[in-house]
Amino acid sequence: MDNLLVLAFSAFIIENIILSQFLGICPFLGVSTKRSNALGMGLAVIFVMLISSSVTWLLYKYVLEAFSIEYMRTIVFILVIASLVQMVETFLKKVSPPLYKALGIYLPLITTNCAVLGVALININEGYNFLEMLVYTTFIGLGFLFVMYIFSMMREKIEMAPVPKAFKGAPIALLVAAILAIIFSRFGGII
Amino acid sequence: MNKGLVSGLVLLTIGLVCGILLSVVNSFTAPRIKLEEDKIKYQALEEFYTLADYDISEYEANGAFATIYILKEKGQSDISALVYTVSAQGFAGPVQMLIAVNSDLSVEGYKVVSHTETSGYGADIVGNNFGVSEIDDLAGFDAVSGVTKTSNAIKECFNLVAQRINSDLGGGLSE
Amino acid sequence: MNKKDNLLKGIIKENPLFVSLLGMCPSLAVTTSLENALGMFLGVFFVLVLSNLIISLIMSNKKLSQLVKPVRIPVYIVVIATLVTIVEMLMHAFLIDLYLSLGVFIPLIVVNCIILGRAEAFASENKPVDSVIDGIGMALGYGMAIMLISIFREFLGKGTITIWGTLQLDLNVIFNFLKIEPISMFVQPAGAFLTFGLILAGITAIANNKKNKLAKEVTNNG
Q1: pTM given for the model
Q2: Cα distance from B8 to chain C (closest Cα, Å)?
Q3: Are residues B113 and B166 in the same domain?
Q4: Close Cβ partners of B21 (under 8 Å, ≥ 6 residues apart)
């Protein structure tokens, strides 16, 4: 239990997926201009990440390892993620239109989001068991949501600030991210 | 023919071609990858033996012992050397050592891997020569003066190895 | 468009990293030393050039392209993933130190938007030769961009510039002369965001300057 707590905390804050592992930077800069967008994207990522990590973990353990074709994992994982995103999209459209309306536009963006494939691969590389995998993935996803949300609030303010012309847009966003990264890296002292 | 079916077949064919290609590349690279991985895994042993000359396997022991590395010369079935990861209680915490013993009981080398002794009291034991050349003869054991407890821990490590080495060489490590 | 322009556009005018902001994740993660950036560049170069070649070969064949069109994105993904896996296996076998320090970012070349982007936007509509040139240009542009970032980061953070293995430029003399330590923050995550942000701002400033000059010239002449 202690182990899982440590794992959860470090996945959430210390090894934060955006600020220390640099996965999912594109949506971080692209979709974080508004709070509602950040929230929608974050939720969609958690949702897809949990499903795809579980499926790829099971596939790896029971198919790829069983036939000792581990080297096919990149190909298999990316195809699984791409088709899962499609399926989730169609499923949501049919079953829950309001949820689809909220998350739908973010789903196609997720296929090329390196965070989803990245987490699926990390789960395998670190040799997590199924429970650890679930905890790690959930908290990595929550960390993504958390940082996206904080960042979007800051960017709403920056929009109104008198930023030098050359720094407008991506450069100032990156500098703000640098300050956030410094703050987050200090949490490492807690464990 | 149905258009969707044809496209599916095309995708499947391309997938198959790619799969075959990958397995060909894999058959070339896999042996080298294993060699490189072993090199990293058994890096600690490198200062005692030339790794390329041996087949190495591991045995997970319990108690004071952690991993025991079993080295057999390539193509031979007899154990030619054993490297023990062993620890004993020192002054402030456990002292962990690697002790490499040849099959004729001569000590090839040893190394303090980790310890928690305060510097000045135990830190200088790391590179020290304790004067041990035969595992079953510790009479010449040369303790570091002033750090009796740590020296004792190291002597204990050698003793622990000496106690089991004969049975291990005699096949005690095969499951 | 002639061949020279085709090659050069990837390096400057349409630089995938600095102008289009594609492939940001690895460019932030692996730029802790020039050696890593060079390794990443090699991987991207191999994958991008070959994927452009293969995809344009498939798509320039009329019959084949008719068959592939409905499933073209999955086909691109399969081709790219295969190439990436080959790179991964070769690096693991022959450049294991690099393989370990790049880690999960080698398989993640698959989702690097540059590669899928070039496949869809260029290789699927152009001849094989042009596609290869486009791939070389884009890979060089990306490689130069990440190497530039990594030179800044490694020099400021560690006081060295590692070109390959033990071939290393030790510039700590400069820090000693100034009586300061290298600023280790630059090799930590925060430094990645900071360096990238500042370089991007510099480039925007230069571009703006040029635009202003051009605009002035136009008004003067007119």
Answers
A1: 0.81
A2: 8
A3: yes
A4: C82, C86
- Contact across the interface for B19 and A72, Cβ inside 8 Å: yes
Indicate whether C176 belongs to any domain. no
Domain total in chain C? 1
Query: Does residue B88 share a domain with residue B13?
Result: no
CB contacts of A69 in chain B (<8 Å) are 23
B121 pLDDT above the threshold of 60: no
Chain A residues with CB under 8 Å of C202 CB are 166
Range of the domain at C207: 3-156+184-221
Residues B29 and B43: beta-carbon distance below 8 Å:
no
Tell me, what's the pLDDT at A13? Answer: 85
- DSSP classification of residue C78: H
B34 and B3 inside one domain: yes
State how far the Cα of A121 lies from the Cα of A128, in Å rounded to an integer. 11
- Residue B76 belongs to what domain range? 49-172
Considering the domain architecture, whether residues B34 and B73 belong to the same structural domain is answered as: no
Chains in contact with C, where contact means 3 or more Cβ–Cβ distances below 8 Å, are A, B
Cβ contact B23–A69 (<8 Å): yes
How many contacts (CB atoms, under 8 Å) link B and C?
Answer: 53
* pLDDT tens-place string over residues A27-61: 888 777 788 888 888 888 898 899 999 999 999 99
Of A71, A74, A175, the CB nearest to C110: A74
Chain A residues lying within 8 Å of B22, measured CB to CB: 71-72, 75
- What does each C-alpha distance from C165 to A81, C35, C98, C161 come to in angstroms? 36, 7, 9, 11
Contact B94, B116 (CB under 8 A): yes
Q: What is the pLDDT of residues B45-60, one digit of tens each?
A: 777 887 777 888 888 8
- Grouped pLDDT means (10 residues each) for chain C, 222 residues: 81 84 85 91 94 92 83 88 93 89 89 86 90 93 93 89 81 82 86 92 89 79 60
Q: Give the pLDDT mean for B110-125.
A: 65
Distance between CA atoms of C164 and A176, rounded to whole angstroms? Answer: 33
User: Does C144 or B79 have the greater pLDDT score?
Assistant: C144
Q: Do both B81 and B103 map to the same domain?
A: yes
Per the structure, how many domains does chain B have?
2
Q: Tell me whether residue C174 is in a domain.
A: no
Q: Are B31 and B53 contained in the same domain?
A: no
Rg (CA), chain B: 24
Same domain, B29 and B69: no
**Domain chopping of chain A, boundaries:** 2-190
ipTM higher than the 0.95 cut: no
Does some domain include residue C161? no
Examine the pLDDT at A84 and tell me if it is beyond 60: yes
Work out the pLDDT band at B145, boundaries 50, 70, 90: low
Size of interface A-B (CB pairs under 8 A): 9
Q: Look at C191 and A178 and tell me if their CB atoms are within 8 Å.
A: yes
Residues B27, B5, single domain; the answer is yes
Contacts of B11 in chain C (CB under 8 A): 71, 74-75, 78
- A91 vs A39, A95, A98, C71, C195, CA distance in Å? 21, 6, 12, 21, 43
